Amino acid sequence: xxxxxxxxxxxxxxxxxxxxxxxxxxxxxxxxxxxxxxxxxxxxxxxxxxxxxxxxxxxxxxxxxxxxxxxxxxxxxxxxxxxxxxxxxxxxxxxxxxxxxxxxxxxxxxxxxxxxxxxxxxxxxxxxxxxxxxxxxxxxxxxxxxxxxxxxxxxxxxxxxxxxxxxxxxxxxxxxxxxxxxxxxxxxxxxxxxxxxxxxxxxxxxxxxxxxxxxxxxxxxxxxxxxxxxxxxxxxxxxxxxxxxxxxxx
Length: 250
Known about the structure:
Layout: E1 2-14, E2 20-26, E3 30-36, E4 54-63, E5 66-77, H1 85-101, H2 109-124, H3 129-143, E6 162-166, E7 171-174, H4 175-179, E8 189-191, H5 196-205, H6 218-236
Parallel strand pairs: 3-5
Antiparallel strand pairs: 1-2, 1-4, 2-3, 4-5, 6-7, 6-8
Helix pairs in contact: 1-3, 2-3, 3-6
Protein backbone atom coordinates (compact mmCIF):
# COMPACT_ATOMS: atom_id res chain seq x y z
CA UNK A 1 0.00 0.00 0.00
CA UNK A 2 1.30 3.43 -0.94
CA UNK A 3 0.51 6.38 1.33
CA UNK A 4 1.56 10.00 1.72
CA UNK A 5 2.19 11.63 5.09
CA UNK A 6 3.95 14.55 6.67
CA UNK A 7 6.85 13.68 8.91
CA UNK A 8 9.92 14.82 10.78
CA UNK A 9 13.24 13.02 10.45
CA UNK A 10 14.42 12.03 13.93
CA UNK A 11 17.39 9.94 12.87
CA UNK A 12 19.23 8.64 9.81
CA UNK A 13 21.43 5.53 9.71
CA UNK A 14 23.56 4.55 6.72
CA UNK A 15 23.56 0.86 5.81
CA UNK A 16 24.97 -1.12 2.87
CA UNK A 17 24.72 -0.27 -0.84
CA UNK A 18 23.88 3.39 -0.16
CA UNK A 19 20.67 2.38 1.57
CA UNK A 20 19.53 4.33 4.62
CA UNK A 21 17.21 3.71 7.54
CA UNK A 22 15.17 6.72 8.62
CA UNK A 23 13.42 7.07 11.96
CA UNK A 24 10.44 9.24 11.06
CA UNK A 25 7.85 10.84 13.30
CA UNK A 26 4.87 10.88 10.94
CA UNK A 27 1.40 12.33 11.24
CA UNK A 28 -0.30 9.21 9.94
CA UNK A 29 1.64 6.38 11.61
CA UNK A 30 3.48 7.99 14.52
CA UNK A 31 7.10 6.89 14.89
CA UNK A 32 8.27 4.42 12.25
CA UNK A 33 11.55 3.08 10.88
CA UNK A 34 11.65 3.20 7.10
CA UNK A 35 14.24 2.16 4.56
CA UNK A 36 15.09 4.27 1.54
CA UNK A 37 17.40 4.34 -1.46
CA UNK A 38 16.97 8.09 -1.92
CA UNK A 39 20.15 10.14 -2.12
CA UNK A 40 20.90 13.41 -0.38
CA UNK A 41 23.76 14.79 -2.43
CA UNK A 42 23.99 18.48 -3.20
CA UNK A 43 22.61 21.53 -1.42
CA UNK A 44 19.24 21.78 -3.13
CA UNK A 45 16.28 22.04 -0.76
CA UNK A 46 14.69 18.97 -2.32
CA UNK A 47 17.70 16.90 -1.23
CA UNK A 48 17.23 17.72 2.45
CA UNK A 49 14.09 15.62 2.86
CA UNK A 50 15.81 12.61 4.39
CA UNK A 51 18.12 14.49 6.75
CA UNK A 52 17.47 15.12 10.46
CA UNK A 53 15.93 18.51 11.33
CA UNK A 54 13.68 18.26 8.27
CA UNK A 55 9.90 18.59 8.12
CA UNK A 56 8.83 16.88 4.93
CA UNK A 57 6.13 15.14 2.95
CA UNK A 58 6.85 11.49 2.25
CA UNK A 59 5.53 8.88 -0.16
CA UNK A 60 5.81 5.62 1.74
CA UNK A 61 5.19 2.08 0.60
CA UNK A 62 3.97 0.04 3.56
CA UNK A 63 3.77 -3.73 3.73
CA UNK A 64 2.48 -4.95 7.08
CA UNK A 65 5.06 -3.64 9.55
CA UNK A 66 7.73 -2.59 7.04
CA UNK A 67 8.03 0.82 5.39
CA UNK A 68 10.01 2.16 2.46
CA UNK A 69 10.30 5.85 1.53
CA UNK A 70 10.09 6.21 -2.24
CA UNK A 71 9.82 10.00 -2.46
CA UNK A 72 10.63 12.86 -0.09
CA UNK A 73 9.59 16.49 -0.47
CA UNK A 74 10.97 19.12 1.91
CA UNK A 75 8.37 21.35 3.54
CA UNK A 76 10.92 23.09 5.75
CA UNK A 77 14.52 22.35 6.59
CA UNK A 78 15.91 23.64 9.86
CA UNK A 79 19.48 23.46 8.55
CA UNK A 80 20.32 26.76 10.28
CA UNK A 81 20.45 24.89 13.61
CA UNK A 82 23.92 23.76 12.59
CA UNK A 83 25.21 27.35 12.58
CA UNK A 84 25.08 27.55 16.39
CA UNK A 85 26.77 24.67 18.25
CA UNK A 86 24.81 25.15 21.48
CA UNK A 87 21.49 25.33 19.63
CA UNK A 88 22.43 22.30 17.54
CA UNK A 89 23.17 20.18 20.62
CA UNK A 90 19.91 21.20 22.31
CA UNK A 91 17.86 20.32 19.24
CA UNK A 92 19.79 17.05 18.83
CA UNK A 93 18.81 16.24 22.40
CA UNK A 94 15.16 17.06 21.57
CA UNK A 95 15.21 14.58 18.69
CA UNK A 96 16.85 11.86 20.78
CA UNK A 97 14.39 12.42 23.64
CA UNK A 98 11.45 12.30 21.21
CA UNK A 99 12.70 9.10 19.61
CA UNK A 100 13.13 7.40 22.99
CA UNK A 101 9.79 8.37 24.50
CA UNK A 102 7.56 7.60 21.49
CA UNK A 103 6.22 4.10 20.94
CA UNK A 104 6.35 2.58 17.48
CA UNK A 105 3.36 3.11 15.19
CA UNK A 106 1.19 5.11 17.57
CA UNK A 107 -0.03 8.35 15.95
CA UNK A 108 0.49 11.38 18.20
CA UNK A 109 -0.87 14.41 16.36
CA UNK A 110 -0.49 16.81 19.28
CA UNK A 111 3.11 15.77 19.93
CA UNK A 112 3.88 16.14 16.23
CA UNK A 113 2.62 19.72 16.41
CA UNK A 114 4.61 20.32 19.61
CA UNK A 115 7.81 19.30 17.83
CA UNK A 116 7.09 21.61 14.88
CA UNK A 117 6.30 24.45 17.29
CA UNK A 118 9.46 24.00 19.35
CA UNK A 119 11.56 23.87 16.16
CA UNK A 120 10.01 27.14 14.98
CA UNK A 121 10.59 28.77 18.36
CA UNK A 122 14.14 27.44 18.56
CA UNK A 123 14.91 28.81 15.09
CA UNK A 124 14.15 32.35 16.29
CA UNK A 125 15.89 32.03 19.64
CA UNK A 126 19.39 33.42 20.27
CA UNK A 127 20.14 32.10 23.77
CA UNK A 128 18.85 30.05 26.74
CA UNK A 129 17.83 27.15 24.53
CA UNK A 130 17.37 24.89 27.55
CA UNK A 131 14.20 26.77 28.51
CA UNK A 132 12.51 25.62 25.32
CA UNK A 133 13.82 22.08 25.74
CA UNK A 134 12.39 21.86 29.27
CA UNK A 135 9.04 23.34 28.20
CA UNK A 136 8.78 20.82 25.34
CA UNK A 137 9.68 17.88 27.58
CA UNK A 138 7.04 18.83 30.13
CA UNK A 139 4.34 19.10 27.49
CA UNK A 140 5.29 15.72 26.03
CA UNK A 141 5.30 14.06 29.47
CA UNK A 142 1.92 15.63 30.25
CA UNK A 143 0.37 14.51 26.96
CA UNK A 144 1.61 10.92 27.41
CA UNK A 145 0.36 10.78 31.00
CA UNK A 146 3.80 10.70 32.63
CA UNK A 147 4.00 14.20 34.12
CA UNK A 148 4.49 14.34 37.93
CA UNK A 149 1.34 15.20 39.87
CA UNK A 150 1.61 18.87 40.89
CA UNK A 151 -1.94 19.45 42.14
CA UNK A 152 -2.02 17.63 45.47
CA UNK A 153 0.13 15.56 47.79
CA UNK A 154 0.56 12.12 46.25
CA UNK A 155 0.60 10.56 49.73
CA UNK A 156 -2.25 12.18 51.68
CA UNK A 157 -4.09 14.16 48.99
CA UNK A 158 -3.92 17.59 50.62
CA UNK A 159 -3.43 20.69 48.47
CA UNK A 160 -1.82 22.66 51.30
CA UNK A 161 1.89 23.15 52.05
CA UNK A 162 3.10 21.41 48.88
CA UNK A 163 6.80 22.03 49.37
CA UNK A 164 8.56 18.97 47.93
CA UNK A 165 8.74 16.91 44.74
CA UNK A 166 9.26 13.20 45.31
CA UNK A 167 10.54 11.40 42.21
CA UNK A 168 9.71 7.91 43.49
CA UNK A 169 6.18 8.86 44.55
CA UNK A 170 5.57 10.55 41.20
CA UNK A 171 4.74 14.10 42.28
CA UNK A 172 4.62 16.68 45.02
CA UNK A 173 4.30 15.91 48.71
CA UNK A 174 3.31 18.16 51.59
CA UNK A 175 5.49 19.22 54.49
CA UNK A 176 3.78 16.83 56.91
CA UNK A 177 4.29 13.78 54.70
CA UNK A 178 7.90 14.74 54.03
CA UNK A 179 8.46 15.15 57.77
CA UNK A 180 7.03 11.69 58.43
CA UNK A 181 8.85 10.10 55.52
CA UNK A 182 11.55 7.50 56.10
CA UNK A 183 13.47 8.92 53.15
CA UNK A 184 13.84 12.49 54.37
CA UNK A 185 17.40 12.75 53.07
CA UNK A 186 16.58 10.96 49.84
CA UNK A 187 18.38 12.49 46.85
CA UNK A 188 15.21 11.96 44.81
CA UNK A 189 13.22 14.43 46.92
CA UNK A 190 13.53 18.10 45.94
CA UNK A 191 12.53 21.08 48.05
CA UNK A 192 10.55 23.76 46.23
CA UNK A 193 12.91 26.51 47.32
CA UNK A 194 13.15 28.13 43.88
CA UNK A 195 9.44 28.01 43.10
CA UNK A 196 10.08 25.05 40.80
CA UNK A 197 6.53 23.70 40.99
CA UNK A 198 5.06 27.05 39.92
CA UNK A 199 7.49 27.11 36.99
CA UNK A 200 6.44 23.59 35.99
CA UNK A 201 2.74 24.47 36.19
CA UNK A 202 3.32 27.55 34.06
CA UNK A 203 5.31 25.61 31.46
CA UNK A 204 2.58 22.99 31.13
CA UNK A 205 -0.13 25.63 30.74
CA UNK A 206 1.43 28.04 28.24
CA UNK A 207 1.76 27.38 24.46
CA UNK A 208 5.28 26.87 23.19
CA UNK A 209 5.26 30.03 21.09
CA UNK A 210 4.91 32.02 24.34
CA UNK A 211 8.42 30.94 25.34
CA UNK A 212 10.24 32.88 22.63
CA UNK A 213 11.29 35.58 25.10
CA UNK A 214 11.27 33.55 28.33
CA UNK A 215 14.58 32.34 29.73
CA UNK A 216 15.19 30.47 32.98
CA UNK A 217 18.14 31.34 35.18
CA UNK A 218 20.93 28.80 35.55
CA UNK A 219 19.86 27.52 39.00
CA UNK A 220 16.27 26.74 37.98
CA UNK A 221 17.46 25.22 34.71
CA UNK A 222 19.80 22.86 36.56
CA UNK A 223 17.16 21.75 39.08
CA UNK A 224 14.47 21.22 36.45
CA UNK A 225 16.85 19.19 34.31
CA UNK A 226 17.66 16.96 37.26
CA UNK A 227 13.98 16.45 38.12
CA UNK A 228 13.03 15.59 34.54
CA UNK A 229 16.06 13.33 33.99
CA UNK A 230 15.56 11.43 37.24
CA UNK A 231 11.82 11.13 36.70
CA UNK A 232 12.34 9.67 33.21
CA UNK A 233 15.01 7.30 34.47
CA UNK A 234 12.99 6.07 37.46
CA UNK A 235 9.55 5.79 35.83
CA UNK A 236 10.28 5.32 32.11
CA UNK A 237 13.74 3.72 32.13
CA UNK A 238 15.01 6.45 29.80
CA UNK A 239 18.60 7.33 30.64
CA UNK A 240 22.04 8.13 29.24
CA UNK A 241 20.93 9.97 26.11
CA UNK A 242 24.02 10.42 23.96
CA UNK A 243 23.51 14.13 23.30
CA UNK A 244 22.76 14.96 26.94
CA UNK A 245 26.38 15.33 27.98
CA UNK A 246 26.95 18.14 25.48
CA UNK A 247 24.20 20.43 26.78
CA UNK A 248 25.22 23.71 28.36
CA UNK A 249 23.83 24.93 31.68
CA UNK A 250 21.85 27.77 30.10
